[in-house]
TrEMBL record:
PANTHER family: 39S RIBOSOMAL PROTEIN L20 (PTHR10986). GO terms for molecular function: rRNA binding; structural constituent of ribosome. NCBIfam families: rplT_bact. GO terms for biological process: ribosomal large subunit assembly; translation. Belongs to the bacterial ribosomal protein bL20 family. Gene3D superfamilies: 6.10.160.10, Ribosomal protein L20. This is Large ribosomal subunit protein bL20. It comes from Planctopirus ephydatiae. One of its GO terms (cellular component) is ribonucleoprotein complex. Coiled coil: none annotated. Binds directly to 23S ribosomal RNA and is necessary for the in vitro assembly process of the 50S ribosomal subunit. It is not involved in the protein synthesizing functions of that subunit.
Amino acid sequence: MRISFAVARHKSHKRLFREARGQVGGRSKQIRLVKETVVRNRCFAFRDRRARKRDFRSLWITRITAAAQMRGLSYSRFINGMDLAGIKLNRKSLSELAIHHPAVFDEVANLVKAALQKNNVNFGRKLAAV
C-alpha cells in the first residue's frame, strides 16, 4: 500500500511559510528559499537575544556613569562604594533611579561617599593646585 506524506508535508511547509512571512520575493514563496531564510532568522534571533542583554547592561552603565560623575564619583568608585555600603541594587534599578528619581539617587550617592570615606578610599578627581 502506498503512503502519501502530502498532509504532513503541507503542514510543515505551511508552518515555515508562516514563519517567513514579510520576507521579499521568493524568500516567502519558494520552499527551498524559505527554509534557508527561516534557519538564518532563527540564528539571528538566538544571537540577538543575548546581544540585547549586553546592550541594555551597557546602556545602564552609561547612565549610572553620567549620574555618578555629576555627583563627583567615577563609576568604578561608585560601584565599589555600593559594595562597601552594603547596598544591593542592580544596574537597571540604579539607572532608573538616576533618570526618574534623582533625589533618591543623591541619597544613594551620599551613602556611597560616606562608605568610601569610612574605609579610607580616596574618591573623586584630584584638582590641580591653582
